[in-house]
Amino acid sequence: MLAALGVRVVRFRWWIIAFWGVVFLASVPFAFQATSSLKSGFGEVETESRVALRLMSERLELPESSVTLVFSSDSLEASDPRYIEAVERATAPLSQIPEVDQLITFHSAENARMVASDGRTTYAFVLLNADIDGATDLVPDIRAALQPGDELDIWVTGGVAIFSDLNIASEQDLRRAEIITLPLLLVALLIVFGGVIAAGLPLAMGGLSVVITLALVHLLAQFTDMSIFVLNIASFLGLGMAVDYSLLMVSRFREELVDHEVTEAVQLTLATAGKAIVFSAGTSIIGLSGLLFFQFMMLRSLGIGGITVILFSLLIALTLIPALLAVLGTRINKFSVRLMRVGDGMFWLRFSRWVMRHPVAVAVPVTAGLLLLGAPFLSVKLGSPWATILPENAESRVGWELVAEQFGPGELAQVIVVNTSDTSTLSPDNIAAAHEFIQRMEDDPRVRRVDSILSTDLDVSLEEFQFLYSLPSPEAIGGPQVAFALDQLVSDDRSLSMIRVVPDHGPVSDETHNLANEIRAAPPMGDLETNVTGVTPDLQDTVDRMYSDFPKVIIYVAIVTYLALFFLFRSVVLPLKAVVLNILSILASFGALVFVFQQGHFQNLLGFTSEGITEASVPILLFSIVFGLSMDYEVFLLSRVKEEYEANGDNTQAVAVGMERSGRIITSAALILILVSAGFASGDILIVKTLGFGVGLAILIDSTIVRALLVPALMRLFSAANWWAPGFLGGGTAPGTGQS
Predict the structure, then answer these.
(1) pLDDT band at residue 25, thresholds of 50, 70 and 90?
(2) CA distance readout (Å), 654 to 39, 634, 710
(3) Which of 7, 227, 557, 659 supports an S-S bond with 301, CB 3.0-4.6 Å?
(4) What's the structural domain count of the chain?
(5) Distance, CA of 546 to CA of 541 (rounded, Å)
């Protein structure tokens, strides 16, 4: 079928080139709009923390989103009227923004707790009539509207501002990665091909694939939510896969040109390399399709973006590349540039034969080494960094860290206990239950303070609180403090009340995580139903929900990949070995991630500060991306081995020849993806840096240790059994007599 496609591609080559040219030109304007269409965060999922937020919004009429302003002055104390005037003057332009609903400062709320111990630092809340995504888009307008003056420094921070800065940093990381990667790719391709035309073709295809994918992402974002990180995934996979596929096609075409004329060379290239690319793209799509099983918008959209870019890379490889090759013909070798060589065929032939002479001596220590490299993953501590996911100079991170320094690390990361009751949260029994809970929290060394309707400066007993809140208008007796607490923390119908627990540690610390878990395990009693929210509980819920789905994804990807390879190779053993070896190399890279990013080794060299956790989405994304990418090399190698085996029936000879003919291409393809990964590992966003490092390392392990050592060693040990399949598939013993 692919050979027949080759005939049509050659016949209609100019129409195909023109078609892709039109598609490219039509895609450019949409590609530039992609960023504005994408969203921050993980997306909405029905978790306990999100239920609590919805209850607060519905019954307390709290806006869905807000930003935090941090003020500091070198010359004025917060008690100085000039400080208050400076704050009011700086924030006055915010009233011109229609979405700004309310501004709560330490002065307007008469809340001394919003003033730091240094007396010069305060914070305020800007409540917004906008959802999270709308609020994120408003952050630049808020920053532009503020007028600090000479006496006041202002930072915009909080969750919404962190998401906004994440968008900005993501675009900057993408531009940096492309600036670093493209020149390196060009040099690498010149080394691989030794010619300007042959080297430039894969790079051009990578750029084409990225532009078309970003345009399609923009269009998809009009109908479904797409994460800002799709930009990075689309660029990474677009460059990597399109270049890899082009590399394989161009290399095979040049090989076929030696003995065949151009048209026949194109047909043979599609029939052989094209088939390998179809199945390798299929395995990559299978891996990324696992992300579609997750409920989180961020993971699903990365799966959609990744699958889209691979499909377009495949279409380009099967149509545009052969059309261009048909036009170029022998001119593909023009403008020769000899820099150096990546291990030639004879090297791989001799090396594979050496490995197959010592299969046990190679397989045992290599497997042990991979397991040892993966051992740190046994101590993985999954979590989600907060402000520290951003570069150190990001405004929202600077503001967040200033509040943590001056007010305590939990001031803006409170654990919020939302109590609801079918009777009244202010009934005597429920007041007693809340009182016991608050006392327990205030006695806990991990708690800095508790804000509630019972946490006032009034010197009253539990019984007096019960009597006070049983009155129709308790604020008339309790005064301004009680009135403010009721207004902020209790719904009008008294069916909901809040308790804000301010931890003494940061939101991703073990202490705060344990505190949130214990609050959930032992909430207030009475007839109260409790939901817990806040930064830490929300991050916990996100991680728990992701990893409840992850095992199902692993099983799905492994089984479907096995079946695809089973029908490609007509073998029971080869697909099983491929899946096991892939998992082994991925586990090794997981262990390295824990060693570097969780335990903090080489953090100065890589430019980050370890938080003592492994970002929870990275192992999931790494598995989904690397499982397919690594399988590409398995398909590339075994496709050549299978060609030779079907010709002579000698397992050992087939492996050696397969390594001879594909070893250099696999090494070159791996080098391309490692360079692309290195560009993304240079980023400032921790998740992008971690993912770039992990993918690059996994590919390095897979293309060297696994493909060069373990695969030929195991192929030799299994011998003819490699090729066994049930009789109905035409399987059985090897053809011919040489089944060594």
Answers:
(1) very high
(2) 50, 15, 16
(3) 227
(4) 4
(5) 8
Residues 113 and 29 in one domain: no
From 533, 556, 573, the end of a domain falls on 533
Q: Does 156 lie in the same domain as 116?
A: yes
- Could you count the other beta carbons within 10 Å of the beta carbon of residue 731? 14
Strands 382-383 and 153-157 turn out to be unpaired
Averaged pLDDT of the chain: 86
Q: Are residues 18 and 126 in the same domain?
A: no
Nearest Cα residue to 353 out of 681, 727, 655, 134: 655
Q: Contact 408/123 with Cβ under 8 angstroms? A: no
CB atoms within 10 A of CB 737: 9
Q: What is the domain range of residue 509?
A: 414-533
Element (H, E) at 124: strand 121-128
- CATH number, domain of 563, equals 1.20.1640.10
Distances (CA, A) of 93 to 67, 78, 245: 15, 21, 54
| 442-486: pLDDT as tens digits | 999 999 999 888 876 667 788 888 888 888 887 767 677 777 778
pLDDT at 163 exceeding the cut of 90: no
What does 653-716 look like in DSSP terms, one character per residue? HHHHHHHHHHHHHHHHHHHHHHHHHHHHHT-SSHHHHHHHHHHHHHHHHIIIIIIIIIHHHHHH
In the block, tokens 């299994």 appear at 718
737 is a domain residue: no
> How do residues 625-658 score in pLDDT, each as one tens digit?
888 777 777 887 888 888 888 888 888 888 888 8
